Amino acid sequence: MSLEYPQDFRYQDTHEYVRLDGEIGTVGITQFAVDQMGDVVFLELPDIGDLLTKGENFGTIESVKAVEDLNAPVTGTVIERNEAVIDSPEEIAEDPYGEGWLLKVRVNDADEVLDSLTADEYRALVEGE
């Protein structure tokens, strides 16, 4: 099965992504990470109004295999949490780049994503190219 990496997203080597739309960043985890984790059973996310700092932990995702830290791909303020995936974390696996997003963040500096991985760079990282 070929995994998807949308071209308009930027990726972290810790498997989080961000999609910018103006000053709003949608944050989630990649399909690769979801596939590696197996069934996601619990999600801990920050509250609306909390500040994320790029590269720092902002929550955890728990699967039947492991508990993993989530690291912020951008610096900014949380403006929305995806309550649907908090209530039913298994939904992340079904559509990690669409309905399975985790947070929406008002980004402090959109240029900050420029040092993140492109889709091709992320694919090379995870597929060992």
Automatic annotation (TrEMBL):
Taxonomic path: Bacteria, Bacillati, Cyanobacteriota, Cyanophyceae, Nostocales
* Protein name listed in UniProt: Glycine cleavage system H protein
- Keyword Methyltransferase in the entry? The reply is no
Q: A single Pfam family, by name?
A: GCV_H
Tell me what gene encodes this. Answer: gcvH
Name the needed cofactors.
Answer: (R)-lipoate
Ranges that cross the membrane: none
Similarity remark: Belongs to the GcvH family.
Q: How does it assemble?
A: The glycine cleavage system is composed of four proteins: P, T, L and H.
Explain the purpose of this protein: The glycine cleavage system catalyzes the degradation of glycine. The H protein shuttles the methylamine group of glycine from the P protein to the T protein.
Could you tell me which InterPro entries the record lists for this protein? Answer: 2-oxoA_DH_lipoyl-BS, Biotin_lipoyl, GCV_H, GCV_H/Fam206, GCV_H_sub, Single_hybrid_motif
User: What's the source species for this entry?
Assistant: Nodularia harveyana UHCC-0300
- The Lipoyl-binding domain covers 24-106
